[in-house]
Design a protein that fits this description.
- By secondary structure, the protein is mostly helical.
- The protein is about 45% helix and about 10% strand.
- The chain has a two-stranded antiparallel ribbon. Strands 3-4 form a two-stranded antiparallel sheet.
- α2 (about 90-120) crosses α6 and α2 (about 90-120) packs parallel to α7.
- The radius of gyration is 26 Å and the shape is globular.
- The relative contact order is 0.10.
Length: about 250
């Protein structure tokens, strides 16, 4: 990743179009007045308009044209004196790439471990203590469900962000292979989705502690109550931010 350098914005030519009740209206650039060469006939005009409409639809539904440049050239990571990464990117995919790269700089092995758990493959690398969780994850087909969600359930912009995020982690691992454990997986865009689903799958496979105590005679000291589980977050009032808008940051330790 390049650190602290200015990146010029890419200028993209787009056909002018607007949505109407009848579909897409294209500003073709042809005058309705007769020219010295004569007026364009209806068949020819229909062909030109059809081609332009097809071009507009392609631009509107196809991949962004600015994505041709490498992701690493479309984003910057700037770390402040506290080591906190600040990301400047030209688009969502490049921003996801830089975020994944910076996250891997700080927590590559932990990311890899958690994604292996989300795939139900942790016991293979970390021992029999992970077997029960792996079986629960595989019982719910967690990895395949996350892959389906990536292709069918999320929007294109978020999908591109996830693709960039996975590419950023993998780029850092490739750049620092000698520093990363051999078991580090190649991260897929669906892995963050699988990790998010993992907690629901594990919770669904484990009866609440009070039920176990009531019906199985398990000693209270052997149970973990829900009160012990937790995480953290930081919230700032809009009165304390330069933009005047509130900020909520969940799981800052990640």
């Amino acid at each position: 990743m390049r650190e602290t350098r200015n990146i010029p914005r890419t200028r993209i030519f787009r056909l002018k179009a607007e949505a109407t009740a009848d579909g897409i209206h294209v500003a073709s650039g042809f005058s309705r007045k007769k020219s010295d060469q004569g007026q364009m006939g209806d068949p020819a005009r229909a062909v030109v308009c059809s081609v332009l409409v097809a071009a507009v639809v392609l631009v509107a539904t196809g991949p962004p044209l600015h994505g041709a440049r490498p992701l690493a050239d479309r984003a910057e990571i700037r770390r402040d004196t506290f080591g906190v990464p600040h990301i400047v990117a030209e688009d969502e995919e490049a921003g996801g790439f830089a975020f994944g790269y910076a996250m891997a700089e700080d927590h590559a092995a932990e990311i890899g471990r958690r994604y292996l758990q989300a795939r139900g493959e942790a016991a293979r690398h970390f021992g029999p203590g992970e077997v029960d969780a792996d079986l629960a994850i595989r019982r719910f087909d967690n990895r395949a469900a996350a892959r389906r969600a990536l292709s069918d359930e999320i929007g294109r912009r978020f999908r591109r962000w996830l693709q960039g995020f996975a590419a950023g982690i993998n780029a850092y691992v490739a750049d620092h292979r000698d520093l990363i454990p051999a078991w580090m997986p190649v991260v897929e865009p669906s892995d963050p989705l699988a990790y998010g689903r993992m907690f629901a799958a594990l919770a669904a496979s484990r009866p609440p502690g009070r039920l176990l105590q009531k019906y199985s005679g398990v000693p209270t000291t052997a149970l973990r109550t829900g009160d012990e589980a937790g995480s953290n977050a930081v919230a700032l009032s809009g009165a304390k931010t330069s933009s005047g808008r509130p900020i909520l940051l969940g799981n800052p330790h990640l």
